[in-house]
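Quick one, T. Sequence first:
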Amino acid sequence: MLRSGNVFMAIFLGAIILVPAPMNGASLALQAVETDIRHGPHVEQVVYAIYPYDFGAVLALEAGEIQAYANTVDCYFPPDDTSGYDTYPISFNEYQVCSFNGRHYPYNLSSFRMAFSYALDKHSAAQEMPGGIGRPHDSFVPATHTWSSEDILNPSFYSPEPILGNAILDAAGFSVNPETGWRRCPDGSELNVSVSWYNWPNRDIAVMAVDALHSLHVAAWEGLAHSVAPLCECCGHVDFDVYCATTDELFSDIDSLVDLFWSGYVDDPYDRSPCFQNATYDYWRNLYYNAESEAEGRHALEQMQIIVHDAAPVVPVCHRTRLQVVRTENYAGYVEEIGQGAVGVWTLRNIHPKNDTHGGTFSVGWSESPDSFNIFTANTTLSKHVFANIYSSLFRRGPDGTPVPDLAESLKIERHEDNANVPQGYIRYTVDVLKNVTWSDGEPLTAEDVAYTFNYIVESASYGNPSSHGLPELQSAVALNPATLRLEFSSDSYRTFDGFAYFPIIPEHVFRGDPGIEPSQWQVWDPILNSTWPLVTSGPFHLVGYTEDEHVILERNNLYHWRPDPEFTGCLRPGNEVYRAGSTEFFVDWQSSIPLLGQYECALNGGLLSTGVWNGSAISVGIGGLSAGEYEMCVNVCDSFGNLYHGSLAFEVRPAGGLIEWLQSDPLHAVALGVSVSSASVIAAVGILALRERMLRGD
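Structure tokens:
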């Protein structure tokens, strides 16, 4: 993704490509590919309908009251007649695992843990999940993550191989007591393993763990744990040997996973459960955190996954998969997204009615209400989902998790070896910010807003703002001009990119305004719920309505910087009737694919025919009385923010009695048809610039 010096990589970042840069730094030009999922949204409105129970959402889905349910449902739905529905198996970062207490002997022996890994039947465990749609798993990094080494780990522990497990125990000195038939530890002590679990879904895994131990001739039994023990704390329960749990929080954060097996926590009885110590793992962990390139970081994480796979301090059993259901008879454009399924932010950008290119209301069921509209304090999934749709950031995560530019137009990365002005051990990012971005209150969004956002986070850190945790090494955030941002970090790790790339940008003029939101007020700021502060955003949607425990309503932002490019099409009316030279009562209807607010001019062969306000409806322009010949009609639109759009239509009028013949219709640029039409194209270009100047003057 990022590079240093004269080493470059060109890779796809979702919908964009990073291309190699000049030798004096890592300048990265961001280019759209042929199909760009950033363009949107296409629907007029999105309604999040809140259902506290799955049953209510399922009934609403069947009745057509909602088009999709963002949560997953049990496998009894959809009904037997699946026409009009589609299901998406969603791989969540949720695992069932068996964790060993590394403080106790012999669970601190990798030979014992690996023998257990060989004996466990992960396929059967996956089949015991609802609907049998779980997936066996070996790596501690989820398969949904692009850096997971699941497919290269060898050997695979999916299928039970107790013969190999027993051979490992034999070689490690775990003898079998001939009187009992159970194994002893290498030091001669009896081996009796307690497998603990807390909730009933994990009891099934505990039973399978006991079966695996029995196949190794290890005495074991399962039992209910005395208290709830999250995976990261269960090492504090000194009476457990093996603990079976379901975990999602740890397995959704790669950094948490990396630290989970770090020996730096081994002396803290309540911090990390495996109590794992491995000097080689610590070495690769250090390289991971200090890597200068994505390739270095990826390689370090791969090595850590191999070490944990072989040592097995925590044994992932299976990866949980659930079903998500959407209706497909009326809407198209669902985008599958890691962690979100088919009802993520990219679906809302691309969904559209099947019978119409744009417009309509798309209703999504959700199981919870937002807990806040403060981007610094919100915790619920719906709150964060709303933020992703109403705010902009420099980059967004694409459907596959890779970065896709949003506000960023280009990115340059420099270290000391690229630029002597960058201190040794530092990294500098220079970002060109798009110039056509507007806040919902009409103010322009510039690099000053971006710099202010990161400075605000750093300044509010002393008041407890947790968002500052992603920017510990940020030394400066400066707008060099309204379109250029420079960030400098006291670390040359490429991982600093994630600290700033995806954070929602806030409006400086609102936070510095009256009443303003001081850094000390970061926690109490809550627009929508508190009318003291306006909600000013710049994303693909605006938040226009909220009723607690009922719904959240988003409305399309027609001025969004990645909105669909409007196409102007002209058609003759009335239909196929003969247009005789000199005829009257004929019109060309100009239509746009999306509503636009602005002014228009329409010209025929360079002569102005009409002007007016474009409000999204069709513009009818009379063409009565034309003599035989070739014509080009041009329509030029300037929206209220100075953006220019142009469409053209070429046709020929035959002598009396002949049909009108369309020569070419081009919604993007003018068409040249001989000298007179070429002149018309020049005049059209001059005319649209003049129109823009008049609008900027307020004429």
